[in-house]
Amino acid sequence: MADLRRRGLIAEDADPGLDVVNGDRRPPERVDEVLDAVVALATDAAAQARSGALEPRPDTCTPARRCAYPGLCRCETA
């Protein structure tokens, strides 16, 4: 059975009463690093999409190395 607990990233000093999965609490500076990296990736993806340069990447779409959205993907192997 899949683990359906919510997962994420939370600063170790935030909302101390919140029940989170072990390992999801991180030092605040690490949370900032992750958020900065995610914003940079999203900004890059948006710029690629806007310019028409965003390419399908089915090999990295899921951990199983296949397309997660074969009904939407424009990749021939999806």
What does this structure look like?
The chain is mainly alpha-helical and 78 residues long. It has one domain. It is 31% helix and 5% strand. A two-stranded parallel sheet has the order 1-2. The longest helix is centred in the middle third of the chain and has 24 residues. It is flat. The mean pLDDT is 87.
Tell me roughly what share of residues is in helical segments. 25-40%
Percent of residues in beta strands: 5-15%
N-to-C series of helices and strands:
EEH
Q: End-to-end distance, in Å?
A: 27 Å
Class per helix and strand makeup: mainly alpha
Radius of gyration (CA) equals 17 Å
Low-confidence stretches: none
How are the strands of the largest sheet arranged? 1-2
User: How would you characterize the largest beta sheet?
Assistant: 2 strands, parallel
Q: How many individual helices?
A: 1
Domain count: the total is 1
Q: Name the shape in a single word.
A: flat
Count of beta strands: 2
Mean pLDDT: 87
